[in-house]
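Appendix C reproduces, verbatim, an entry submitted by the partner laboratory led by Prof. M.T., so that reviewers can inspect both the input and the predicted structure.
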Amino acid sequence: MTPVHSFWLLDVLDILIVAALFYRLLSLVKGTRSAQMIVGLLMIALVGLVANYFDLLAVRWIVSSLKTVWLIVFVILFQPELRHALAQFGRTRYFRSFLRGENYGVLGEVVRAVESLAQRRHGGLIVMERNVGLRNFVETGSRLDAKVSAELLVTLFSPGSPLHDGAVILREDAIVAASCILPLSSNPLTAVSLGTRHRAALGLSEETDAAVIVVSEQTGDISVAHRGVLYSRLDEGRLRSELSRIFRIRPQDEPEPPVATAEPAAEATPKAAG
């Protein structure tokens, strides 16, 4: 490869990286107040270019003076967005191994909430996001962005709550949205006895790699749908073991969790309906 071709490839790579960074930045601020601030900064940059072209001394001096503090201003103005971007970067699958302790704590809160819902016979549908993003389904519900806690999950699915219908979607340690609509299973082998919650759980698990927990309102039975398979009649211990297996979470001081027995959706009993 000649030096000319090498420089050309580096220029293309440079442009692609800058374009990706700008695209990511615009995606983060889309629909927020920061989008208006970015437009303002672009206007200042445009004024600077015009001032240089027409040799406007006063305007050019003002723009040049802003260059000395632009980095500090940028960090102050976009502090929430920068924090959110760094957090998302740390949540990628390549870095999740460092967050397993935190995920195990979230898993405990979810298991505690599910156990409480089952005892009260309150129906529940909890989606735990993994590698495949669930943004399309999040947009069908009410945005919350609240920290995961057993008490909040139980409250959301209480019959008197305006958000008890639909699914709650979790992402890492946050409840992203509630009252979300999920696709029903399109598998013709799905048992007709399954209720809407179980069909919705199977439907999402067929389209994504999420783990979906279902609590039957009629029986209080606990089920987990993953990769198009429904794991039914789980108690607290088996639920924790199944979720630990799905998310590959295992504290060093605990033995390997037992794997729950999978029950094909087509063979689910009427008790699974809910």
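The chain has two domains: 3-90, 97-272. Additional entries are available on request from the coordinating office.
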